[in-house]
Task: structure prediction
Amino acid sequence: MSEEKNKESLVPNELIASRILLIRGQKVMIDADIAQLYGVDTKRLNEQVKRNKSRFPENFMFELTNAEKADVVANCDHLENLKFSPVLPKVFTEHGIMMVANVLTSERAIQVSIQIIEVFIKMREMLTDNLSLKLDIEEIKKKLSNHSKNIELVFNYLDELIDKKENEKPRKQIGYKKQ
Result:
């Protein structure tokens, strides 16, 4: 069923996932990438955002610094044109992307935004699964460490018993003696 859904989708999920960046500790998408996915010009997208500024608080959208812009251009080949732009790009979080779809209101924007949100959800699920796996591994390491300590303790006790036995005087035999 997911293959059928992928065939119906306007944009491949892999393309969307490749456009999600980690900036300031948040998963975001650059305005140029969102505009391309939604089938609009970046300028038009930013005009709509500017007209609806109250819908985009700091945790939905923020503007990159010059250093962040340079870093993004250096690491993302498809964003090479940003190098020559005098305007600092805006980036949108998952919630900001959904809000962009609300202000653009085209059918394509709505469909693609749903698809983008689904990719964000899949990424979050993968991270959660990964975290769960790491916690399980740490728990196993603790158990193994405890087992190693317990085995070492047993060997120490055995060594003590052997030393004690060797240092003891032979005991006089008691009981029935053969003639």
Q: What stands out?
A: Confidence is low (pLDDT under 50) at residues 1-7. The CA atoms of residues 69 and 85 lie 10 Å apart. The helical segments are 2-8, 13-19, 31-38, 42-51, 66-75, 94-104, 107-167. The radius of gyration is 32 Å.
